[in-house]
Amino acid sequence: MAADWDLLIRNALVFDGSGAPPQVEDLAVTDGRIAARGPGLDASRAATVHDADGHWLMPGLLDIHTHMDLEVELDAGLSEVVRHGTTTCVVGNCSIGTAFGAQRRGTDDPILDCFARVENIPKNILERCVAQMDWHDTAGYLAHLDGLKLGPNIAPLLPHSMLRIEVMGMEAAISRSPSDSELARMEALLEDAMRQGYVGFSTDNIPFHYLANEPHTEAKIPSPYANKREHRRLLDVVREHDRVWQATPDAVNRLGTFKRFLYTSGRLFGKPLRTTALTAIDLVHDRSVWKVFLQLSRFFNSWLMQGKFHFQVLSTPFLLWSEGAISPIFEEFAATRPLLACDVDDRAGRQAILSNPEYIERFERDWYDKRIVSTFQRDLRVMRIDACPVGEWCGETGADVYARLQRFQHGDASAARSDAERAAFEAAPAAPSEARFFLHLLAHYDRDLRWHIVVGNDRPEVLEQLLFSDYTLPGFNDSGAHLINLAFFDGNLLTLQIAQRHSLDKVALAVRRLTRDPAAFFGLDVGTLDTGAQADLTLIDPEALARYDTDANRQMVYRDVLGAEQLVNRSDGVVDAVWIAGTQVWDGSAPTAALGRERLGRPLTFSGRANA
């Protein structure tokens, strides 16, 4: 007899995404959808039975801040996503994306121009992505996604920078405000995208997101050039359709950012505007600012303002790696921006800059200028070396090395612990300041010097408050970007791990915040285990989760699909299995044969279920 169910998962501790306490249940799947759920389902009715005794079953997890719109063109299965239990990605964040295709016109090359520097993706990888782009409008993009053999579901935002480029062209988009007819055209294209089901609209006001191609390397991406009138008219379209505004704000102009966030207010504008912003964080160099984020969130969501506002929160200490000068933090520091204008592989270009005496003097002046505030604190004590030709330096801070150099240059030959360290000290400039020594390291070793700093979220008790606030959402993993700088693919698992240290009730809350809450906020028909829902499922081994150490399982690996190295997480064993549309795509240690070969995920459009 034919089986009634394709799959039966038995004896799992089921977290259904509602936040309710978990129950030991079975779950049956037929034709990619949940067919039944409850205790004691008849195993004889299933073609395949998966024993989940002692494991946690939950809806597939959502990652609400990714830049997977590039990688999906090279690897539709997105294996680095699904291995951590994530089955839905929101793309088109930070005002940049691929909704209009390559947008190449004349010498304009917007994908390379916007992504190479802002997201630290090498141009040769971007070229391969652009080669796949045969659509030219928002409807064509949805059709393209629908034709891919997707692993995770993809939910697209319409990106503001690309909208400006589409209507105005690159040169005008970074040099002036739109004309009345151009603004009307932008409104019309945004209206089209909303009607087609795009889940929202993303803007960017970070003051150091610069373009990568000449002659625009001193210009920002287009979105920050928009004025109040442009923002208001475009966001009115988003508000009317009850979609999400993803905002990347200007943290320097705090008053201007506060005024812009007022757009969320239903009291002021007649109807709330769903807003998710980057990012609530406990910064190492500003230990009070995390409270401001929560206070702002409460204010915007208060009875007085009647907004729908959520900051995104990274669920782990924000560790940022750099290879020589290849680091996103250096866009904040004016003296190092010219180095970032060089492509990742352009060592000669960086050497020419770093050897210029005028540049060295400028860099040193800026290093000691206390009026300049940046994430990199210009303090060698916060710089920890991970890899370098001088093996003794690995694990040390820049300050450790600098102190021994000073001893060596003052006649203490024993300060050099090896021939390699002696040669390094002999190659250093005489009696350098900290600034000149740091610049020497960048020039002498370039990308062979790998180092990191801790940006924030290093206090567990504060991080937990941020993660579980009513007015935040776990996110800002930035998956698919900053290939050698960041690795937060496992961010969702770390949220579960934090909750696990308390109770199963807290885990149930964490599951809700990773599934049903973001799905409701973005209006997506995922994130539940309701009968009839698409069977996107994640099975967690709680014992492996409790043991998991993200720092010990972060690796730099060469990925054939990219043709480059990438910093990734390896949580293998924590996620026992992942199913997308009822098909298993992860078996605990590796992707299954179906991933990337079968069409499983889908482009997610607004479902009308938004209610958060």
Q: What brief labels describe this structure?
A:
612 residues, alpha/beta, TIM Barrel, 2 domains, eight-stranded mixed beta sheet, eight-stranded parallel beta sheet, 23 helices, 21 strands, 19% strand, globular
Characterise the protein shown here.
This protein has 23 helices and 21 strands. By secondary structure, it is α/β, with parallel strands linked by helices. The chain folds into 2 domains: 61-317 and 457-586, Metal-dependent hydrolases (TIM Barrel); 321-454, no CATH class. Helix 6 (160-168) crosses helix 8, helix 8 packs parallel to helix 9 and helix 20 packs antiparallel against helix 21 (504-514). The protein starts with a strand and ends in a 26-residue tail after the last strand. The strands form 4 sheets. Strands 1, 2, 3, 4, 5, 17, 20 and 21 form an 8-stranded mixed beta sheet that branches. Strands 6-7-8-9-10-11-12-16 form an 8-stranded parallel beta sheet, sandwiched between helices. Strands 13-15-14 form a 3-stranded antiparallel beta sheet, with no helix packed on it.
